[in-house]
Amino acid sequence: MFNIPNVTKNIIIINLLMFFAKLVAVRYGIDFDDLLGLHFFKATDFRLYQFFTYMFVHAGWEHIFFNMFAVWMFGRVMEQVMGSQRFLFYYIVCGVGAGIMQEGAQWIEYVYQGLSAYESVNADGMVMPMSAYLNNWTTVGASGAVYGILLSFGMTFPNERLFIIPIPVPIKAKWFVIGYAVIELMSALGHRGDNIAHMAHLGGMIFGLLLILYWRRHDSGGNGRFFGGGLGNIGGGLGSNYGGGYYSRYEDVTHSGSTHSTSLTQRLARWWQAQKNRWKTSRSARMNVTNNASKHAADMQWRQKEQQRQEEIDRILDKVKRGGYNSLTDEEKRKLFEASER
């Protein structure tokens, strides 16, 4: 798929498949937003797995198009920089972090409005039970994870110039990211009824920032890669020019206390590669020995035949001296002629 790295490509494919499955499921009375979208944690329809599934469900064509376009545009670059497994880990953390921030924002609104004291609510002129009202607080979309990718791009390539419609001039990535963060913060504070999860967007950026700062703090040597993969030492801060190395060290997140440890899979891969290299070296040495021995044997055999031929020619010449050329047999004449042609 146009040489897109594996994780970025699969993220786009999964989201598209989920979107088309949602369109089909609606015809059978199945609501993906209700099943897989992230509900408010006090709602009856809330499930823990929704922190993961909500980022693969989108509200409409425009929603999924812009999210997947951003994943394609920036995700493929960051996957090459981070490495596939690290990029996937980063993407999921940003998505889950965005959901956590959105839950926190909804909880603040729930407390601020004092909804716990009511059993029903008047929403748009219609009275509904509080449980049904809270179940409508649903979040869907990969926007939080996408905003995390935007942040990582801005921190890795701060001075890369981007053309953003409708801005008529190119803008540096760092200012683009900072501007987006400010817009989302102002929108979260001032536009509560626009059905856009602004706090989820900010949450993706915040969790992405925390993760990058953690990697930067624990990646000082630049040897190996976290989960293996990308270019490793391109990372940098908002004020640097591709400096630093917070993508460079290989770490096992299941053992975060050991910053120089490698996973069992990595150790097995290295062991297997060492065995293959040792076998190739040994095989090459054996082939050289065999080839040398074969060559030596062939040389010995050739010398032996040459010696026998020369002795035969000497015998024929002695016979010529004793009895003349006519004393030779036809076979001896042939051998003497062949020797004269060599």
Identify the notable features of this structure and list them briefly.
342 residues, 11 helices, two-stranded antiparallel ribbon, mainly alpha
Portion in helices: 55-70%
Strand order in the sheet with the most strands: 1-4
General form: rod-shaped
Number of strands: 6
Could you provide a short overview of the structure?
The chain is mainly alpha-helical and 342 residues long. It is 62% helix and 5% strand.
Account of the 3D structure:
The protein is mainly alpha-helical and 342 residues long. It has helices spanning 6-27, 32-36, 50-53, 61-82, 84-112, 130-135, 143-156, 173-190, 198-218, 264-323, 330-341, and strands at residues 38-39, 120-123, 126-129, 138-139, 161-162, 171-172. It has 2 domains: 6-262, Rhomboid-like (Rhomboid-like fold); 268-341. The protein is built from 11 helices and 6 strands. Strand 5 (161-162) and strand 6 (171-172) form a beta hairpin. The chain is rod-shaped, with a radius of gyration of 37 Å.
List the helices and strands and how they pair.
Blueprint: H1 6-27, H2 32-36, E1 38-39, H3 50-53, H4 61-82, H5 84-112, E2 120-123, E3 126-129, H6 130-135, E4 138-139, H7 143-156, E5 161-162, E6 171-172, H8 173-190, H9 198-218, H10 264-323, H11 330-341
Helix pairs in contact: 1-4, 4-5, 4-7, 5-7, 5-9, 7-8, 7-9, 8-9
